[in-house]
Design a protein that fits this description.
Layout: H1 3-6, H2 10-19, H3 28-49, H4 55-59, H5 61-71, E1 86-89, H6 95-105, H7 111-115, H8 145-164, E2 173-178, H9 179-183, H10 185-197, E3 202-208, E4 211-212, E5 215-216, H11 225-232, E6 235-240, H12 246-258, E7 264-269, H13 284-287, H14 292-302, H15 313-337, H16 343-348, E8 369-370, H17 372-382, E9 390-394, H18 398-401, E10 420-422, H19 427-440, E11 444-450, H20 454-467, E12 472-476, H21 494-499, E13 505-507, H22 512-524, E14 529-532, E15 538-539, H23 546-549, E16 552-555, E17 563-567, H24 571-584, E18 589-593, H25 597-601, H26 605-611, E19 618-621, E20 635-637, H27 648-654, H28 659-673
Parallel strand pairs: 1-2, 2-3, 3-7, 6-7, 9-10, 9-11, 11-12, 12-14, 13-14, 17-18, 17-19, 19-20
Antiparallel strand pairs: 4-5, 8-15, 16-18
Amino acid sequence: MARSAVHGVGAGRVVKLLLRGVTTRLRASDDRLAVAMIRGLAMDAPLAAKSGHQGTAMALAPLGHVLYSRVMKHDPQQPLWHDRDRFVLSNGHSSILQYALLYLQGYAVELDDLRNFRQWGSITPGHPERGHTPGVEVTTGPLGQGFANAVGMALAERHLRARFGADHCDHHTFVIVGDGCLMEGISHEAASLAGHQRLERLITVFDDNKVTIDGSTDLSCSDDVAQRFAAYGWNVVQLGDVGDDLDALERALLDAKAHTGSPTLLILRTHIGTPSPELTDKPEAHGNPFTAAHVTATKNVMGIPDEPFYVDADVVESIRKHAAARGSAARSSHEAATRGASAEWRQMWDPSPSDEWRSAPPLFDPATSIATRVAVQKALDASSADVPGMIVGAADLTGNTGTKLSNTHAMSATQPDGRQMYYGVREHAMGAIAVGMALHGGVLPVVGTFFVFADYMRPALRLAALSRAKAVFVFSHDSVGVGEDGPTHQPVEQLASLRVIPGLRVVRPADANETARAWRQACDHPGPTALILSRQNTPIVCDGSAIERGAAIVRDTDGSPRVTIIATGTEVAVAIAAAEALAEQHIDARVVSMPCPELFATQDPTWRAHVLPVGVPTLSIEAASTFGWSTFADDSIGIDRFGASAPGNLALNRLGISVENLVHRTKDLLDALGA
């Protein structure tokens, strides 16, 4: 879409009209008292909890107040309306800042919630959690992740604006980062990609307080942050020591909104713990709650009553009326602009395309042999019209992982409507960017890399599960079948390690049919899915039904089986071949494909017993660690060591993933159990 269309002003004009008569600025006295109250709450809540980080929240109270009361487009009454500005607190340990702001602005956060800070069952946990606290956009805390999430949000916003116009999507992403966020390696990857993509609506404020828990940042870091981000292609603005100047902060933020052509980094010199007479600029202000005496002394400096959780009811009412009026006007404008929105726009925001599927999953010739990484690409192509929000990409492994759409172009600074994303060699950032895209909404991110590099993405995978972010992670080259690259590239323990993440659906399909069904299931699943796919070709041996309930019988016996063999992935074909060999020796073996043990475990016990009959010996085979298989199997064949550099088939055979070994181990199991 042309730039003039992307930057259409129709919605903006409506907002201005609606804002006439709305007070656009609080009284100066209310502003001052609001900042003091935020700082007071930032001390009171950690003191009551005997846990928490007040120092950064105190320093950033003026910035937070300006963002929420003067700059950001948001509506406390409708926290999730599509065209709101997004705010990410990447240094999530200072969560009390966000909770205090949400309370004052009139979100569904009350003073009692602040009193219950960090307590069991409260909506004010130690770090912000998406879906737990109204107004929190992403789950933050592991430093740097939130910054990369914000890059993902900015990518999603720009993509939607390019495809549907500014009347439909026209907002900014604001993120606050600290020294810790910028020290973590993920920030380098995310900032580099953001600069390359020229994400002009991404505004980052660096809280430059020069303090870490261990002490001064001089202990461990001497980076020139400004030069670093300038080298990435960012617009860098040194704000200096204006942390308490509300008007200066507002001007800087509005200038950043007006800037075009690159993301903006505002470097703000702050003083942790300010205005504490004793702990300003001290490392102790970071994570140790102030004592009651420290709180009293600081409240005296600020000129507010020395009362726990003090707020001025009149000022709170004024702030909330102001926020409600601004938010309602902006939201009403957007709703008016999108009232006649296209079916495609509505479908972009649909959490599940189940009712919109028009095409069947691709069918695969039973006589062929195809790698599941190849099958997923065919499935993606076949459903691209049914899932118009799909944005597909990989960490420099697009063709290798099957994460390639045939009928689109690359997303770039000049073509932001592209549905193919090239992340470069940036797995850390890619995972977190996908989470940010998913939580922004309107798009379905699909990202791919070799399975062994899931280790680089583990924090993002964990946060995707914790925040129920609907993203699809494609991990190919799933076993020692990778071959000659050797043990550094041959995943062994990764499969078990992902299966233990609560809320992450991990699926290892047996063949192309199961892969196509697994992709469709991932589109319908409300949370994150990891698809574990093969490098090597594998026969078409299943009808795909195992995907629906996590497992299914794919080869059965005429009568009762003497043994059940459970397999996943490419080992299902091995198990079927072994069952045929066992049949020649008059041993009846049932074969069960179990692409998702976690899903199978949630099924009705009667049905589980139908698939895995009680009293029938069970043996599992999977080209990965055997950890966890004792839940379903009496014995397990797997790989409980690192692999080796050799052709893939040879490596699998030498490590026991073979028909011959499976037949041998089955007979040993039956002998040992006297079955």
